[in-house]
Amino acid sequence: MSATDEHTRKGAVIRQLLRALRSRNYRLFVAGQSVSLVGTWMQQVAMSWLVYRLTGSATLLGVVGFFSQIPSILISPVAGVLADHWDRRRLLIVTQMLAMLQAAFLAAAVLTGIVQVWQIIALSLVLGIVNAVDIPVRQSFVVQMVEHRDDLSNAIALNSSMVNGARLIGPSVAGLLVASVGEGICFLLNAASYLAVILALAAMRIPPRSHHHHHRPHILHELREGVAYAAKFGPIRSILLLVALISLMGMPYAVLVPVFAKDILHGGAHTFGFLMTAAGCGALSGTLFLALRDSVLGLGRVIVKATVCFAAGIAIFALSDNFPLSLAALALAGFGAMTVVASCNTILQTILEEDKRGRVMSLFTMAFVGMAPLGSLAAGSLAGIIGPRYTLLIGGGGCLAGAAMFVRQLPGIREKVRPIYRRMGIIPEVAEGMETAAEQPPVEEETER
Predict the structure, then answer these.
(1) Which of 104, 151, 203, 365 would staple 76 via disulfide (CB 3.0–4.6 Å)?
(2) Residue 124 CB partners (closer than 8 Å, separation 6+)
(3) How far is CA 217 from the centre of its chain?
């Protein structure tokens, strides 16, 4: 292969990887969010280390995780209804401003030396309320930012790549800053980072959505309508249940990483930062893998394999006393976790009816974020009784069980999703008129999600 051909090939790969950036609004979102997410990860790592430094309690780590995420169960459904009717960009600007104030208050408490655990819990609850509104609105806003519908799956993967790219930088920087100047600076920098995404949102040019304000049903009716829609359609129901199980049983591993860093690997804040960065490396690899895919076809198998990778990574980390092996295990877990979540998100965004998008994405938020606090609280309590190793092994076993159940449901899921993909032209032969839907054979490679 000549140098010119190699250059052309690399250029094609890059264009494929970044194709969603041809939309101006999405470019602005990526620019602002990339800065803000680094600050978010810095705060998350610094807060976990601060709680464990002040208390030495794995249980309180679980309590803080519980209060930072439990509002999603109660508030996200209402946020989903708002996202289906209100201006999503304005809602996001408000949530980002409130999150900036939360980080500023936390920084002030730490830097003035008056911080106590109850204050951390209270501010975690505030941030949880803000995120319970922000996440479903942001998820449903992606469709408005992307001008070309065929770029949607790439945009979702790039959004996850941003999260995990920041996950590489934020924990490492936080570990160094915590060890040198303390946690307060991390919180202060996070507060400043929200300005980037607020300015990006303000600069967007979003065409207005069509709203049907007359005869709008009561909010409780719309909530029931969204839940019924998700519950009756098998693919949506199966995906939400799998994400909820993984979030409940597997994701709480992050709550116990400070315990492993300090008590099992005998390290400090920098060890904790490197472990979280390893998980971020794996997660970023997963999102780049998804961003390079041409289509949503085949994602069913990807979800199953990624769930198994996640469970294996957690189990290896639980049993490891070796720092390099622990880094590798968390990288595997990060790859599996983010690949599962981003794949599920992509399928949902592809098959949803537009007028119910906000409500179903709020259910996705409940499954992913809302179940995590219950898992965090249980993991923190269980670790105090049976130890962190066995706690993570139980979680990994639960994820394997979820993968097994999803495998059994895949044939039925494919059958119900296939007509949607035909209407959207995702199955090329039907889109090009080469064969009718009735004549098309159920070829595994073409029709598998």
Answers:
(1) 365
(2) 47, 64, 67, 68
(3) 31
Q: How many CB atoms lie within 10 A of CB 20?
A: 26
Task: Compute the half-sphere exposure of residue 168: CA atoms within 13 Å on the CB side of its CA.
Answer: 13
Residue 1, domain member (yes or no): no
pTM of full prediction above 0.85: no
The CATH number of whichever domain residue 192 belongs to comes to 1.20.1250.20
Q: How far from 444 is each of 343, 427, 440, CA to CA, in Å?
A: 19, 12, 12
Rounded distance, CA 41 to CA 341, Å?
A: 18
Burial class from Cβ neighbours inside 10 Å (0-12, 13-18, 19+) for residue 360 reads buried
CB 134 within 8 A of CB 99: yes
The predicted structure's pLDDT at residue 12: 65
Per-residue CA distances from 288 to 168, 319, 331, 342, 355 (Å): 14, 29, 14, 11, 30
Q: Which domain holds residue 122?
A: 19-203+221-447
56: region left, alpha or beta (phi > 0 left; psi from -120 to 50 alpha): left
Cα dihedral angle (304, 309, 315, 318), rounded to 10 degrees?
-130
Q: Residues 408-414: contacts with CB within 8 Å, 24+ apart? A: 409/234, 409/238, 410/300, 410/301, 410/304, 410/449, 412/234, 413/234, 413/235, 413/238, 413/300, 413/449, 414/300, 414/447, 414/448, 414/449
Amino acid occupying residue 42: M
pLDDT in tens, 306-355: 999 999 999 999 999 899 999 999 999 999 998 998 888 888 877 877 77
Q: Cβ(281)–Cβ(266) under 8 Å?
A: no
Crossing angle (nearest 10°) for helices 117-145 and 152-180 = 150
Residue 171, helix vs strand vs coil: helix
Residue 209 counted as domain residue: no
Residue 148 sits at φ, ψ, to 5 deg, of -110, 120
Residue 414 gets the label, from left (phi > 0), alpha (psi -120 to 50) or beta, of alpha
**What is the mean pLDDT of the segment spanning 40-49?**
85
Is residue 281, in this structure, part of any structural domain at all? yes
233 DSSP assignment? S
- φ, ψ for residue 434, nearest 5 deg: -80, -25
Question: CA dist 104 to 53, 100, 183, 201, 269, Å?
Answer: 21, 6, 12, 21, 22
Domain count, the chain: 1
Mean pLDDT of the chain: 80
Identify the DSSP state of 150.
G
* Structural domain contains residue 291: yes
| Cβ–Cβ under 8 Å, residues 368 and 76 | no
The answer to whether 293 and 339 have CB atoms below 8 angstroms apart is: no
